Structure formats: structure tokens, C-alpha cells
Amino acid sequence: MGFRIEHDLLGEKLVPEDAYYGIHTLRAAENFPITGRPIHKKLVMALVTVKKAAAMANTELEFLPERIGRAIVAACDDILSGNLLDQFLVDSIQGGAGTSSNMNANEVIANRAIEMLGGKKGDYSIVHPINHVNMFQSTNDVYPTALRIASIWLLKPLSEDMAGLQDALQQKENEFCDVIKVGRTQLQDAVPIMLGQEFGAYAQAIARDRWRLYKVQERLRQVNIGGTAVGTGLNADRRYIYLVTEKLQDLTGLGLARAEYPMDPTQNSDVFVEVSGLLKSAAVNLSKIASDLRLLSSGPRAGLMEISLPPMQAGSSIMPGKVNPIIPEAVNLAAFQVMANDVAITLAAQAGQLELNAMLPLIARNLLESLEIMDNAVKIFIKRCVSGITANREHCRKLLEESFSTLPALTPYIGYDAATAAAQKALAENKPVRQTVLEMGLMDEKTLDKVLNPYELTKPGVFEVRS
Question: Rounded to the nearest 5°, which phi and psi values hold at 425?
């Protein structure tokens, strides 16, 4: 493999001859061998889209020669089609507020454009990474703008899949609307409920998360592109500042808008904290539901086993026949990771100083990961778990009849003390509540059957008052 010599502020380095990246990317790769994971592919695509918009604007305004401008746009299109993604190799955790990723994009685009114009990679007299590809730009307006675009790209499918989860839970709400079971508080028998009501409550929680994630996209649409170093727009032509935003709107179709005060999104990262906070909130609900499903399906002989989850794989190398709730467990793990990422995002956002937040790469890494993790977790939760849940109807009814959860419904008729005495007697003699109440002569059978009607037990009020 041959090499070419490239120069920068610190001197010169040998760059692989066939590499589309250059000396700035190579130094960054050497400086940041931290996670072994480059920046998120959606962030790469967003960075390249910003570069394309800038080239289009600068060509139209005649700041870039048309030949060079067209080559840069063509190079961007080539990358956006999926080519050369392996050339974006700077680690996702990097110093410099994202400068290394910005330069990585500048160099790959420039060298691909040079190649398209018939030149050799590294001949920056043809297309220059900074003078041409980065014209009227700074890392400090390119990187935050790209992160906002990438975040919206990932938010959209997540919002849609959350709607799918809501629908799947509502289908189970309808399917289980007549399955009566023991309701539990603090893991103790409480009052009767319908299994469908339980799933309906899950659906309501997910509905709130879906709406919040849908609406928060609006917060990300204000971009600071054109603000250059600190948001003042130094070295950027006024016409470019407005035109590049229009080009980005056209390229993304996202309804982006130029920030009213570009210095604000350049130095402040609270919007990303807000998005992460809503992801954390959704992760909390998702994890709670997953944990409930694990508990409700526990067994098969020594647990609750009120529902059955679709079996996905053998659960043990030592216990034959064991099938574990692996999908809810995976959803729990995904939710925990999103919650952990939120802490890192919060710390990074508050660590910004004066006119810039140098910790933005950590925000990008964790926010985009959280968005992707959540979407993947929701997808498998719907497909491999929720949609295939079945109710163990007879077992639910049996547990209800053996529990004391019907006693609260009898209290308005026989009083709290008598109901307590019935509970103690039923427990001591290991008898159902219904049988005990009849043996004690607390209610006649006809009235007792009416009061213990499943459809009456799970509604508001007292039976005689309602009827």
C-alpha cells in the first residue's frame, strides 16, 4: 500500500494513498482510540447533507466556481447513497467539540470530488477541504445543525413505532376485556380488575410518550447554520446565511428554520437534554410494562402465570423445558441504557462554557444511541412479545376466587369488621371467600352472586346504587 504526504499546522504525515480521509482525520483517529465506535451513521449523513446544502448555496451565489460546486454536490450524493461510510472513522468520543468529525467530512467529500474531477486524492489545489467544502462554515454551526437533523430523522420512526406499541396494547385491552383477575398493590392481593384494564393503562402511558416524542421534534428544527464560530455569522455572507437554510429545508423536508438568535443554539444544549429527558420518561414506562409482563407470566407452575408470553428460545443449558421472558428482559436492558445515557447527556450539556459546548460529541453519541436503542426495543417488543400474549383465563379466575380481593366489594353490605372476620376465617380454613361468607350467614346467595358479578366488580360505585 502506497502513501501520500499531507500537511497541516503541526507538520506532515503519511496518509494511505487510497484513503479518502486526510491528515486531520488521521490525527484524530490516532488521538482518540477510546470506544472503537465511530460517530453514528445518521450523524454522518446529516453532516454530509449540511455540506451539500452549503455547496449548493455557495455555487448559486457564485462564491464557489460551478465546476467545483457541482463536484462537491456529486461527492455528497455519492456518500448519501451509502458509499465511503467506512472512511468516517473518527471515534464518537473526541475532543474539540466535533471538529474532527467536521474535518473528516470535509476531507472525504473533497477527495471524492477531486477524484470525480479527474485528479488524485490529496491534490487540494483542485478541491480544498476547508476553502471549498467548509466555505462560510465552522464546526460550531455545522455539528449542532447536523445533530439536530440526525435526531429528527431518528425521532420520526420512534414516534411511529410508539404509536404501533400503543395500538398493540389497545388490541390486547379489547381482547382481554372480559378476563377478570386479581388486581395487586404492593404485590399483595387488592381488588378485582379486568386484564384488559391493565393493558389499557399501559396503552395510555405509551400514548403520552408517543405524543411527547412527536411534539419535541419542533424543538430541534431551529438550526444555527450560518452562525459560524459563535453564532455571530463572522466570515459568512448574509445571503448565504439565509440561502443555506432554505437549501437544508429542501434537502431534508424537515421544516427547518434559522434560529432567531444563532448564538443560543451554538452555546446551549438544553434542547438535547429535553429530548433525552422525554426518551428517559418513555424508557421508564416501557421498562415498567416489561417488568409487569415478566411478573404476570412468571411460572409456569410456581408463579402468577396469568398470561403467557410467546416462547422465543430455550431458556437454560441446565434446566430442561425452561423458557425465559427474554424480550421483556431485553426491553428492560434497553431502557436502563437510555436512562444511563440521559445522565451523560445532562452532565455534558451543563459542562458547556461561555460561547460553546465542547462536550457536544458525547451528547451526540448518547442521544443518537438512545433514539436507536429505543426504536429497536419497541419494534421487538411489539413483534416478539406484546402481539403474541395470551391470557390464561381459567387460571386468572381461579386465583381471584381463592384470594381475598372480592372482600372490598362486600364491605358496603356487611361492614369492614365482618369482612375482616370472613377473611381471617377463610384464611384459617383454606376456603374461598364466597363459601365462607355464605357459611357465616353474612349474605344470601342470590345477593352475593350479584355483588360478585365480574362486570360489577370492576366498575365504579356500589352495585345496588348503580342498578
Answer: -70, -45
Q: What is the mean pLDDT of residues 427-441?
A: 88
CATH of the domain at 459: 1.10.40.30
Q: What is the DSSP letter of 300?
A: S
Average of pLDDT values for 179-198? 93
Are residue 175 and residue 285 in the same domain, yes or no? yes
* Cell output for 173: 385491552
Quickly state the pLDDT bin for 456 (edges 50, 70, 90).
confident
Q: What is d(CA 296, CA 179) in angstroms, rounded to the nearest whole number?
A: 14
Three-state secondary structure call for residue 418: helix
Alpha-carbon distance of 402 to 400, in angstroms, equals 5
Of the ranges 392-396, 408-412, 462-466, which one carries the lowest mean pLDDT score? 462-466
- Residues 277 and 264: their CA atoms lie apart, in Å, by 20
Torsion-angle region of 446 (φ positive above 0: left; ψ -120 to 50: alpha; else: beta): alpha
Confidence of residue 164 (pLDDT cuts 50, 70, 90): very high
Which residues are tagged catalytic?
Answer: 316
- Domain of residue 434: give its range: 406-466
What gap in Å lies between CA 273 and CA 250, rounded to an integer? 27
CA–CA gap between residue 186 and residue 145 (Å, rounded): 47
189: alpha, beta or left? (left if phi > 0; alpha if psi -120 to 50): beta
